[in-house]
Specification:
With 99 residues, the protein is an alpha+beta fold. It is built from three helices and two strands, in the order H-E-E-H-H. A two-stranded antiparallel ribbon has the order 1-2.
């Protein structure tokens, strides 16, 4: 059985954290701000979208509206997770070959 080596694992973990942080700060996420008369959408980072999510759930009549508002965010999240896994594995493999 192959054991994980500490140095490549640390390097890969740092790379994964950088990718997650960069992806969450890019303004590609849909932020829906709920007012008493309407919901207004604009581009923002992941943390803004997550901050408004409880308000979106509270204002919506059913879960379908929340799904329709945030479906692109779920697509971006899946892409970010896939990219993060690929970068983590690639950096671990690259760092393992160098050491």
């Amino acid at each position: 059985m192959h054991t994980l080596r500490p140095k490549p694992l640390i390097t890969a973990t740092l790379a994964v954290l950088v990718v997650l942080l960069a992806g969450s700060l890019l303004p590609v996420w849909s932020v829906w701000v709920d007012y008493s008369w309407e919901s207004v959408g604009h581009s923002g980072n992941l943390w803004q979208a997550l901050a408004w999510l409880p308000s979106n759930v509270r204002v919506s009549e059913n879960g379908w509206r929340v799904w329709r508002l945030h479906e692109f965010n779920l697509v971006f999240a899946a892409i970010l997770v896939g990219l993060t896994i690929a970068v983590g594995y690639g950096v671990y493999w690259w760092a393992g070959r160098r050491s």
